[in-house]
Amino acid sequence: MSAPTFDLLLKGDVVLSDRIVSEGYIAISGDKIAAVGAGDAPPASKVEDHRGSLLFPGLIDSQIHAGSCEGVEGLRDATRAAAAGGVTTVVDMPFDEPAPVNSVETLARKIDVVGRLATVDVALYVTAPKNGNFKVLRDLAKAGAASIKLSTYEYHPVRFPRFSTGEMYEIFREAADLGIPVAFHNEDQELVTHFVSQFVGRGECGPAAHGASRPPIAELVADAQILELASHTGVRCHIVHSSIAAGNCLARYYRDRGAKVSVETCIHYFIFNEDAMLKHGAFLKLNPPIRAEAERQALWRSLEAGEIDLISTDHVAWPKTRKSDPDIFKNGSGIPGLETLLPVFYTTAVHERSLSPSLIARLTAENPAKHFGFYPRKGHLSVGADADIAVLSKEQLKFDQQRMTSKIKWTPYHGMEMAGVVRATYVRGRKVFDGQVVLAGEGYGKFIRPE
């Protein structure tokens, strides 16, 4: 009998970015993938049989807000939720409570927290300081920042500020020299303020007022401004949550003319429409807001046309107290999404629309890895890559929010019939989730910097 060649062997249908290897295997040595194939499997010290299930590359959630509520300590809960959802790397936004990550010192402190608390691997966004010292972005990039995030809308003057057109122009020029991508929250400040003031003035503060006060034009005006600045500065410009197909088309127009533009959208825009917002109220309040059914369908067509590069969650785990005010404008924006990204995407794209599982591998693993500079270390199931793997069992099961790993036990996906269930998650060759329990402790996750 042959001596074991590998440390761990996983059997199942292997999801590559261009095809599915049926009845395949992934062999792991240490923390790396050592072989991928089909047929007779090589010997290994340990074999885990997931035949009948899909072996996805570990998902990379390219947009989460772990620190919006409890500060950087929120990485503890967010990364545990990620493990339960088949997400092996998260890219966390910089707008932490009470202050953003916009200096080498704040970035270093956050990296330290990752090392102490994270269960899965973590990469970090930074933002620019409002004092005009944009040269600090060079130091932040050198310290390992994956991307820069700015906003055309101000949620808070300190934690989540707005940047003017002039500031953005100067930041773009700086970032273009660095080659680091700059991502945007894309809603026009003047238009949103104008519309919100009208609704508040009339005393209209119910769920319907949220979407109506942030109409598509507010998003498109911001997109146009951002894309025009990008075309004149050569920056790598990234729209983080395009909720309307027209925005994707506009981005494609600029990209076809040589601008370095990429588009990300969030899974919830494919699932919910305005009627669902009226049903769930603040528990489905998002910015940009959930759109009309026609917009939802158009977004699917845009996806199938290849106009979307990344899909993320924009995860925010607000406590119910931040979602329970009868005045829609006084509630927090965002929903938990890490534990549902893979099963929801699989259910709607593969099970209902007959798209390939490889699409999921590209948009939630390979493309994010390439965008942020983690490839070829992460984002694909190939020899030499980190052994980051998500196992999705093709079984029907209603999602139950009471079974969530997160301490926040609510989601608008509660009761949704899923066509797949995450049964195991591996980060760098170690099983961190077994389908029921998070197995890895705090501090197993590592800080990931661009290659």
Write the layout of secondary structure elements.
Blueprint (H helix, E strand, L loop, with lengths): L5 E10 L4 E10 L2 E7 L5 E14 L1 E6 L10 H10 L2 E6 L11 H14 L3 E6 L9 H7 L4 E5 L13 H14 L3 E4 L3 H13 L5 H6 L3 H18 L3 E3 L5 H12 L4 E6 L1 H4 L2 H7 L12 H12 L5 E3 L28 H11 L5 H16 L16 E5 L3 E2 L18 E2 L2 E7 L2 E4 L18
Helix pairs in contact: 4-7, 7-8
Characterise this structure.
By secondary structure, this protein is an alpha/beta fold. It has helices at residues 75-84, 104-117, 136-142, 165-178, 189-201, 207-212, 216-233, 245-256, 268-271, 274-280, 293-304, 341-351, 357-372, and strands spanning 6-15, 20-29, 32-38, 44-57, 59-64, 87-92, 121-126, 147-151, 182-185, 237-239, 261-266, 310-312, 389-393, 397-398, 417-418, 421-427, 430-433. The radius of gyration is 21 Å and the shape is globular. It has an eight-stranded parallel sheet. A seven-stranded mixed sheet has the order 3-2-1-4-13-16-17.
The tally of domains stands at 2
Which structural class is indicated by helix and strand composition?
Answer: alpha/beta
What is the overall silhouette? Answer: globular
The CATH first-level class of the largest domain comes to: Alpha Beta
Largest sheet: 8 strands, parallel
Strand order of the largest sheet: 5-6-7-8-9-10-11-12
The CATH architecture of the largest domain is Alpha-Beta Barrel
Name the CATH superfamily classification of the largest domain: Metal-dependent hydrolases
